[in-house]
Design brief:
Elements (H helix, E strand, L loop, with lengths): L10 H7 L27 H14 L13 H13 L2 H16 L59
Helix pairs in contact: 2-3
Length: 161
Amino acid sequence: MKQIKSWTVSDALWAKVEPLIPRKQRVADRTYQRKPGAGRKPMPARQVFAAIVYVLRTGMQWKALPRVFGSASAVHQYFQDWQQAGFFLKLWQAGLAEYDGLQGIAWEWQSIDGAMGKAPLATECVVANPTDQGKKGTQAKPAGRRLWRPAVARRQRGQRA
């Protein structure tokens, strides 16, 4: 049996996504150097969407995108253009509306946990800044604890223990 990968764009998903994708329009009163249709052909929208889903699903960097999806910089440019055009907001809204129709969302009562207070015991196990761990004298003293001192007096080089 063929395994379906989580980033694969099915025909059913593409049928719902395709109408939401923004189309590039030429500005009427602007002069262009090239004629319409000249230059490099744009990437197919389905290929771009599949690449974006792949990057977002795997969490990889844009430059690590496999070549089968096309140019990583071109896909990232499409991602930025679509984000500015509001594509992902429309996609999220359409997904919410579809889920509301299937399962129903309790719109009357929603809760978000927004507690952002500091943990009172976290200062015992967390250093203020990890880059300052090796520097002398720049670290703040640990809160609520005494400074560390050796139990025995320090001996000199020629002295016996």
